[in-house]
Write a structure and sequence with these properties.
The protein is of the alpha/beta class and 206 residues long. 31% of the residues lie in helices and 13% in strands. The protein contains six helices and seven strands; from the N terminus they run βααβαβαββαβαβ. The chain has a five-stranded parallel β-sheet. It has a two-stranded antiparallel sheet with strand order 4-5. It is globular.
């Protein structure tokens, strides 16, 4: 099988499972060993959310803290990319592939009509700056469209959450989040990877 990623530039975004990055438990490590990209970078942060909080500020420095951190969102990961690219950091100059894996830490998705309202209003497309980033639809739309502005030639991939211990996150909640992510990815015409089927079974997730 031809390796289409060999020699390419890959960006990883998301939450803890991706933030492990080149750690022995990080899936990006094995992804890179197998597919041999020429360059890779990671802005993923443990505990990251797709949706902003009411007090989120885009400071370009999304970090994990054990207490509430309203800036640990995918939108702020985008802000970090914007600032690094503007500063001519070669690690973030350009990418061929962007892989986003988040959602497990978010609250349950909003009703479909709320998601739809982040795309269309008054029979026309809603300006991006008016999309409500407290919602799944608004936050994911903001991230995807902003990434296209930054890296217009990059292929974007959105991954669904993996299973977790049911005492932490119930299977039905993971299933529903994946379903909504698939619908939003379809609306954005972004490639979708159903990582619910990656082999991680909630019974043994710990």
């Amino acid at each position: 099988m031809e390796n289409h990623l060999k020699g390419k530039r890959v960006l990883f975004m998301g939450d803890s499972i991706t933030a492990l990055y080149m750690n022995v438990r990080g899936w990006p490590r094995y992804f890179c060993e197998i597919l041999e990209p020429a360059h890779h970078a990671c802005v993923a942060v443990a505990g990251a959310h797709w949706c902003d909080y009411p007090d989120t500020e885009y400071d370009g420095n999304p970090i994990y803290v054990s207490t509430h951190n309203p800036n640990n969102t995918m939108g702020n990961q985008v802000e970090k990319l914007k600032r690094q690219k503007a500063a001519d950091n070669p690690d973030f100059a350009d990418f061929d592939v962007i892989i986003m894996a988040a959602g497990t830490n978010d609250a349950m998705p909003e009703p479909a009509e709320v998601t739809d309202a982040q795309f269309r209003a008054d029979n026309d497309y809603l300006p991006l700056e008016k999309a409500d980033r407290l919602t799944w639809g608004g936050s994911i739309r903001y991230v995807s469209e902003s990434l296209y502005e930054l890296y217009p030639n990059a292929y974007q991939f959105i991954c669904t959450p993996i299973q977790a211990d049911d005492k932490v996150r119930g299977f039905r909640s993971i299933l529903e989040k994946g379903r909504v992510l698939k619908e939003i990815a379809a609306r954005l015409s972004v490639r979708y990877i159903d990582t619910l089927y990656c082999g991680i079974y909630g019974r043994y997730e710990k």
